[in-house]
Amino acid sequence: MAFRDIVGHRTLVGLLARSIERGTLPPSLVLAGPSGVGKRLAAVSVAQAMNCTNPTASGAAVPGCGVCPACTRIARGVHPDVNILEPGDSGTIKIDQVRDVDRAQIMRVGMAMSLDHPLLGVGLGNYVSVFSSYNVSNMKREAPAHNMYLDLAAQMGIPALLLYLTVLAITWRGLWRMESRMRAEGRTRSFPFLLNLAIQAFFVNLMVFGLSGDVEFDYGAFIMLGAAVTLLAAEENSTARVGASGRN
Ligand SMILES: [Zn+2]
After folding, report:
1. Is pLDDT above 50 for 226?
2. How far is ligand 1, taken at its centre, from the CA of residue 139, in Å?
3. What is the whole-number distance in angstroms between the Cα of residue 65 and the centre of ligand 1?
4. CA of 29 to the centre of ligand 1 (A)
5. pTM, full prediction
C-alpha cells in the first residue's frame, strides 16, 4: 500500500504529496473524520513518502513506492523512525506513551554513540551536545535534595557506600578489560561485546549523573551489576574453554 493507492481524497492527497516534495510539510497534521475513511492509511502513507529509499521507482505523481525496505517496514509498523501510538483501554493516548517514544529515541542514539566511540573517549561534553537536540525537558524528574552518593551514605552508611563503589569499580575494570580484549580479537559485533558496552554506559551514567542527583539509585543498579558479573563470568568460561581446546 502506498500513497497512490489511497482511494478518493484527491485534493487532500495532492496537497500532502506536493508539501512532501517541496519540503513544506508542517511539523504536525491532524487528520479528522468519521471512522473508516482512510485517516490512518493517509498518515502511514505520509510516513512512507517521507522515508522512502526509492522515491522515483514508481514513476507516480506522488512519492512513496510502497515496496522498498523502508516503505514495507513502515507498513509493518517496525520502522525505527516511525512510531504509531494508539489509545489504550482508556480510549486516550497517555503522556507516558509519548515520553516512551523520546526515551526509545535517546536510547538508540546512546547505543549508536557507545558503538561509535571507545567508551571513555566519548566524554560527557559529547553526550550533552548530542542529547541537547532532543526534547528531554518533559522527561526530567523532580530534582532530589541531595546527590546520589549523599543519599546512599545517609541510607547505607559510609562503609557500605565505599564497599558499593569498590564493587562497582572492580566490575567496571573487568568489563573494560573484556572490551579491550574483544576489540583486539575483532569481536565488536558480538552480543557479549554489545551487552558489555551497554552495561558500561549504564555505569558511566550512574556515576556521572549520580553526582547531580539526576539519576535515582534504585534496583536498576543492582540488576546491571548482576548482569555485569554474569557476563564477565560467562566470558571468562568461554575464553578458558577456547584456551583449553586450543592446547589440544
Ligand atoms: Zn519506498
Report:
1. yes
2. 33
3. 4
4. 21
5. 0.46
Helix axes 39-51, 10-22, angle to 10 degrees: 20
> Separation of 241 CA from ligand 1 center, angstroms?
47
Amino acid, single-letter form, for residue 6: I
How many angstroms does the Cα of residue 23 sit away from the middle of ligand 1? 17
CATH tag for 3-84 (out of 1.50.10.10, 3.40.50.300, 3.40.640.10, 3.40.50.1980): 3.40.50.300
Q: Given a cut of 90, is residue 216 above it in pLDDT?
A: no
- C-alpha 51 to ligand 1 mean position (Å): 7
In this structure, what DSSP letter does residue 85 have?
-
| Residues 65 and 104: beta-carbon distance below 8 Å | no
- CA-to-CA dists, residue 202 to 94, 189, 209, 225, angstroms: 27, 19, 10, 10
Contact 228, 171 (CB under 8 A): yes
